[in-house]
Structure formats: C-alpha cells, structure tokens
C-alpha cells in the first residue's frame, strides 16, 4: 500500500513539473483505473490526468516543443481547460477500479466512470474531456 501511495505522489509531482507548476503541498492524490483497466487516472485539486492503453483513434499531431510521448492521455486543470499529454510517465494502473456509475472528486474537478469511458470536468466552468477506446472529446 505504501508503494502505491508513493507512486501516486510521484505521478502528481511529475505532472506538476510537466505543467510547469509546483505541486500543492500535501495535496491528496487519488489514483483510479476504469473497470476494464484500459484507462488510468490521477486526480488532485490541481489537475486530473487520464491515460489510455488501447484506442481506436489517433490524437492530433504533437506540438513542436513536445519531445516525449504525446497523445497517450489528456490533462485538465481548473480554469484552464483540457489538452493532450506530453510526458514520459504514465497514469495507467494508478489505483483501484472506479466502478461504472461512480465518481471521484478533488476540489472543483470530478471524474465519472461509465461503460462508455471516463469523463472529467471542472464543475465550476464546465470544461473537461471524455476519453474511451472509441474516441475522445475536449470541451
């Protein structure tokens, strides 16, 4: 259990570094996977990131300044909207399955697990994303 907690903290710290922000001190980080195991997410008050293992779609082309893996997941920050991940780490296998019909929240960020995929949103401004094997949507 301690090992998985360290993995969550490390993933959050790596995400903060990738975003150019300092991680929030003692932020509570939640990690979960979809029941199928195809999607893994890390969630705290500063961001949510969900990565996908297998997909039937391709992400848009990477930005010129991305020299790491691109398009394997999507990030959402409060008040900033969602964008594709450019990172050398992963959020896959981040925690226990989040059952279909259940939600996980941190601050204004909420993720909902459904058979059709995972949807995460900023409940204050309505921006977010949906990710699944069949497709994705940034909103």
Fold and architecture overview:
This protein is mostly beta strands and 139 residues long. It has one domain (2-138). Helix content is 13%, strand content 38%. It is built from 1 helix and 10 strands. The chain has one helix at residues 2-19, and strands spanning 30-33, 39-43, 48-52, 69-77, 81-87, 103-106, 109-114, 117-122, 128-131, 136-138. It has a 5-stranded antiparallel sheet, with helices on one face. A 5-stranded antiparallel sheet has the order 6-7-8-9-10, with no helix packed on it. Strand 6 (103-106) and strand 7 form a beta hairpin. It is globular and about 35 Å long. The chain starts with a helix and ends with a strand.
Residues in β-strands, percent: 35-45%
**So what's the overall shape?**
globular
Helix segment count?
A: 1
Strand order of the largest sheet: 1-2-3-4-5
Structural class: mainly beta
Distance between the termini: 35 Å
Element-by-element helix/strand order: HEEEEEEEEEE
Helical content band: 10-25%
SSE blueprint and pairings:
Elements: H1 2-19, E1 30-33, E2 39-43, E3 48-52, E4 69-77, E5 81-87, E6 103-106, E7 109-114, E8 117-122, E9 128-131, E10 136-138
Antiparallel strand pairs: 1-2, 2-3, 3-4, 4-5, 6-7, 7-8, 8-9, 9-10
Summarize it.
The chain contains 1 helix and 10 strands. 13% of the residues lie in helices and 38% in strands. The protein has 139 residues and is mainly β.
Descriptive keywords:
mainly beta; disordered N terminus; 139 residues; five-stranded antiparallel β-sheet; 38% strand; 13% helix; 10 strands
